[in-house]
Amino acid sequence: QNQAATQMVLINKLQTDTKQRVVLYDALTKSLKTAQQQDVAHRINEIGVETDQEAQAAMAAIGTATNQRMADMMEAHEDHMVFARKVLEQKAKADERFARRFEKIVEKHDKNLYGS
After folding, report:
1. At 15, which helix (H) or strand (E)?
2. Which residues make Cβ contacts (< 8 Å) with residue 108, sequence separation at least 6?
3. What is the CA radius of gyration of the chain?
4. Sign of the dihedral through C-alpha 87, 93, 96, 101
5. CA 94 to chain CA mean position, Å
């Protein structure tokens, strides 16, 4: 009987230990899943932050390039205006020469001074 009682105590202990292990392993499994999910969530967040940073850097580069092009265009505008002014001055001189020449032609025509 002593041996049977000892075996019953041992069996009860094994059953209790097994139940505790099931609870422990279930909690461990849940913790591992939670840790894995948190790890995935952190990685997704890191990827999102990296993507945001790349987008911000790209937008800044676009803004810088746009500003540079605008400044270049405005600086080049001076050259265009100087060129246009020179062309207009040359045209005015040419128009003046034409007007003087045409005036002589009209005078010759009006006075019928052909052949002289």
Report:
1. helix 2-110
2. 114
3. 49
4. negative
5. 52
Distance of CA 38 to the CA centre of its chain: 30
Per-10-residue mean pLDDT of the chain, 116 residues long, equals 89 94 93 92 95 97 96 94 97 97 92 83
Distance CA(66)–CA(89), nearest Å, equals 34
Predicted TM-score of the model (pTM): 0.48
Phi, psi of 114, rounded to the nearest 5 degrees: -75, 140
Do residues 110 and 104 make contact, with C-beta atoms less than 8 angstroms apart? no
Q: Which residue has the tokens 């600086």?
A: 75
Tracing tokens 């800044």 back to the chain, one arrives at 60
CA 33 to the chain's CA centroid = 37
